[in-house]
Structure formats: C-alpha cells, structure tokens
Amino acid sequence: MTWTSIIIAGIITYFTRMTMVALVDRDLLGERIKAVLAYVPSAVFPAIIFPGIFINDYGTFIEMNDPKIFGAIVAILVGYFSRNVIATILSGLFSYWIIIFLL
Amino acid sequence: MFTKKQLLTKGLLSVAPHMFSVIPFGIVCGAIGIELGFSPLLVYAMSIIIFGGASQIVFLQLLSGGASTLIAVTSVGVINSRHLLYGAVLSEYLEKLSFVKKLLISYLVVDQGFAESNKFFQKNKNEPYLHYHLLGSGGTLWIFWQLSTLAGIILGSFVPEELGLKFAVPLTFIAIVVQDLKKLDHVIVMITCGLSSLLFFDAPFKSYIIISPIIALFVAALVLRLKK
C-alpha cells in the first residue's frame, strides 16, 4: 500500500514538472502573463524561506530571540554584499550554531 | 555561443554551491525516514520516484502519524505543484525541443536547478542548446540528492538533531533571491509571499506553499500595472 502510494505520488510529481513544459503550448500564454511569470522566483521561494525560519518542527511560531532569526539576518547581509552562495549558506549556518552551542 | 559541453559544465557549476544545503538536507531526509521506522529501500526509492525533498519528508511523517495514504499523496501533489510555475517559466526556453526530450528533461526540474538555469537563460536567450544548462544543473542536483539521502539512510540516528541541519534549506533560497532585494517590485512580491506563507501555514495539505505564490503573483500583476 505504501509502495503504491509512493508511485502515485511520484507520477503526480512528475506531471507537475512536465505539464507546462511538454503539454501546454507557450503561445497560449499572453504577454501579460509572461511578464508576471518573471516574478516566479520572488513569488515562490519566500514560501520556503519564511516558514523555514519562523516556524519550528512542531508547527508553531518561534520566539523572537530564536537563533534562526539571527542566522537568517547574517545570511541576508553576507549574501547581499558578497553575491556568493556558499558564503551565504555557511555564514547563516555558522552564526546559528555559534548562538546554539556557545551562548 | 557556447558548446553543449560548456553549457553542461556551466549548469553543473551554477548549482554546485547549493550542495552546502542539498547534502545536509538529503542526509536529514534519509535519516528521518529511517527514524520513523520505514524500510531503507522504501526511503531511498522515494528519492528516485518522487525526487522532491520537502515532499518526501512530509509524506513519511504523515503516514507514520497515522494519516491515510490519500492525504499523504494529496499533500505531495500540493507541495510539488509549484513545479507548474517553474515549467511555465522554462517552457519559453525549451519550446524548440522534441516532445520526447521535453518529457525527459522535465524529470530534472527542481527548485535550485530551475532558479540557477533560469537566471542563465534570462541573460542568454538566443543560445541554441540552452537545455544543456538545465541538464547540468538538474543532473547534478539529482546525483547529489541520491547520494546524500543514501548517506542519511546509512547514518540514520548518528545525525545529531541539535545541528538543525534543516536550517540550510531557507539559507540556500535566501542565496537565490537575495540580489533581487535591490528591486522594490521584487521586495513587495517576496514579502507578500513570505507573510502569506506564515498566515496560511496551517491550511490543509501544506497548501500554503502554492497559495502564497499565487497571491504574490497577483500582487506582481498589480505592481506591473502600476509601473506602466
């Protein structure tokens, strides 16, 4: 039963990837929609970023002094000025760990 | 003009830095599956069949928590529905491919690969073999996702929970969007999406992950109209 459901979930997931690439004719989308689609990264990724910072494993809001907020601020500043992905990720992780393990 | 091999390499290199997030998250993903009591084979098979980190964890957590398979499958579908938006963006660059090639390359459309290849596509619209970049980025992510979930399955409970490795996930996406903070219109769209995701976090089937982008895209349409 679990196997069947994994395969169904896999097929559904594949369709989410494939439908717009292979089945939908690009010309069906008007110029206005294409202009809006340029915002897709900015419109999607914060839905992964915000809950990843502000909501804990139990589905409740974190405290305002949670180390993840500090880590995220450091990562944003480092990322903004360094334009470097590795520096962004590691600065965020290390500043988070420093607060957890040292303070 | 770039050769196919150059594009493949560029795709690979564009996602390579994200491995600092993909590998820890893959390890956590494999370890959680084992910890929840699922068989190693089943946990690993998900990385090939579903190939979507967050949805794999949610699926196993729901099942182990006693949810029905219908709820678990629906949640995976809802979480991964964001790929429809990636596909809509990418289709412009992939439209010259044959139908079969479109079917094959679609399997490799994932968050970071989409983000990095899309950045490259925007600057190099007229390259003839653009899809090789996506092949490089998506293929690299696929390989490392397989290896890291396997590592997590083997390491299992040896992965210390206190490290909070899942925190690498928001960080990798911060790295992707952080330069767009320079543009006010993008900032408005990002904040709309982020706040909506917190507001709708408890909506059924994890649907905040698609509800908030839709709200944010409506706001983007509004912003575009005001800019004119």
How does this model look, in words?
- The complex is a heterodimer of chains A (103) and B (228).
- Chain A is mostly helical and 103 residues long.
- In chain A, 75% of the residues lie in helices and 0% in strands.
- Chain A has two domains: 1-29; 39-102, no CATH class.
- The termini of chain A are far apart.
- The relative contact order of chain A is 0.06.
- The mean pLDDT of chain A is 94.
- Chain B is an all-alpha fold and 228 residues long.
- Chain B has two domains: 4-166, no CATH class; 183-228.
- In chain B, helix 4 packs antiparallel against helix 5 (69-80).
- The relative contact order of chain B is 0.17.
Features:
heterodimer; A: 103 residues; mainly alpha; 2 domains; 75% helix; B: 228 residues; 12 helices; 0% strand
Mind telling me the C-alpha Rg of chain A?
19 Å
What's the number of extended β-strand segments of chain B? 0
Helix count of chain B? 12
* Inertia-based shape of chain A: extended
Share of residues in helices of chain B: over 70%
End-to-end separation of chain A in angstroms reads: 47 Å
Topology:
The complex is a heterodimer of chains A (103) and B (228).
Chain A: H1 2-23, H2 31-37, H3 40-44, H4 46-54, H5 67-82, H6 85-102
Helix pairs in contact in A: 5-6
Chain B: H1 4-15, H2 19-35, H3 40-49, H4 53-64, H5 69-80, H6 82-94, H7 99-106, H8 111-123, H9 131-155, H10 168-177, H11 184-199, H12 208-227
Helix pairs in contact in B: 1-9, 2-4, 2-9, 2-10, 3-9, 4-5, 6-8, 8-9, 11-12
